[in-house]
Amino acid sequence: MDGKDIEGRVDRMQAQIRNDFPILEQKINNNPLIYFDNGATTQMPNCVLECLNRHYMQDNANVHRGIHTLSERSTCAMEDARKTVADFIGCDDPMQIIFTRGATDSLNQVAFGYAAQYMQKGRKVIVTEFEHHSNFVPWQQAAKRTGAEFVVIPMREDGRLDIEALERELDESVVIVSVTAISNVTGTVLPVREIIQKAHQYNVPVCVDASQAIRHGQMNVRELDCDFLAFSGHKTMGPAGIGVLYGKKERLDVMEPLWYGGGMVDVVGNEDTSFTTIPYRLEAGTPNYPGAIGLGQALHYLQEIGTKEIAAWEKELTDTLEQRLSEQKYVHVLGGNVEKQSVISVVVDGIHPYDMASFLNKYGIAVRSGNHCAQPMLRRLGYDSVIRFSPAFYNTKEEIEVIGDRMEKIISFLKKW
């Protein structure tokens, strides 16, 4: 599908898609809202909002705990959502889907519930410089507690991952490799499939942080052959507070629970407790079943539009945005000339990112400024704060033109001072 075909289909669907997101209809500071902070949180379509409202009004009850009608409805809806998630990521068995509080929770569970039991002095855990803190700090802290070596694979000068450095570190002493699929700072698409293949040559499991990549429908766990995969609902048109952890059955079976309580036990005695099977063994307490149900609806929505079409249009927007911003005087696009998806970050000579984001907000343009929970990567790039633009499929090229025009005006104004 070439750019014109993509644009033609999107033009036909754009009005309908925009209407699905009521939040986009508002004005901020008397300007139409232009929401380009989707790397942090995407907006929810009407069908998800209606699904949540309908569940609370008609079916709400605790799951897995009652035989009355509402409890059975609620349980069925949550388990249907588990099946939807499994189908979305190409997992054959819904019981390999764990509902968590978000990607951060998922990654912590892998770090401390799975990997930590194999980590000790003389063994290694590997991450990359591209990681969000959620896929960096848990591994760092688990290594500190166990005496294992914490290895960070660097970014090359051209903006790509140093695959040769990874190859030098891979051996039988590695407990796990954990890597993001798309950088939340530069939008760089990492060679996840290649990383998995190289790691598996040494029987090393690989955990994929799919938070920025999941809505593109390209995270098929069967094809990738990853051992774990994590993502958050609020980055894929779903509610906040719900996340997913996928794991191969043999990995999940040996995971130790981090949380204990109701729902995850089998027999509780005064001296000891036995635990139930996966996935419920890792879902202690009352789960966020409304969040899971809303996430299932969100994934249905993405599938109805078409994940390939979404990925293609967001790529088109990303490339257009990168070109528009790179044309501007004083503006530097980060990440080098590499494949990017749905994230573009920039710095502006002499203007602090906070000031630029504040001025853009006066025009109704929502972007993110700061370190984006990726301080090691920003230090590698030579900055402590940048401006991030992250489009989603409901954004338009017209909005990109507005952003470019407003940036030029803001830069011109601030340079006078």
Automatic annotation (TrEMBL):
Signal peptide: none annotated. The keyword Ribonucleoprotein does not apply. It catalyses: (sulfur carrier)-H + L-cysteine = (sulfur carrier)-SH + L-alanine. GO terms for biological process: cysteine metabolic process. It holds the Pfam family Aminotran_5. GO terms for molecular function: cysteine desulfurase activity; pyridoxal phosphate binding. The keyword Protein biosynthesis does not apply. Keywords: Pyridoxal phosphate, Transferase. Its cofactor is pyridoxal 5'-phosphate. Its EC number is 2.8.1.7. Residues 34-401 form the Aminotransferase class V domain. It is an enzyme of class 2 (transferase). InterPro entries: Aminotrans_V_dom (IPR000192), Aminotrans_V_PyrdxlP_BS (IPR020578), Cys_dSase_SufS (IPR010970), Cysteine_dSase (IPR016454), PyrdxlP-dep_Trfase (IPR015424), PyrdxlP-dep_Trfase_major (IPR015421), PyrdxlP-dep_Trfase_small (IPR015422). Belongs to the class-V pyridoxal-phosphate-dependent aminotransferase family. Csd subfamily. Catalyzes the removal of elemental sulfur and selenium atoms from L-cysteine, L-cystine, L-selenocysteine, and L-selenocystine to produce L-alanine. This is Cysteine desulfurase.
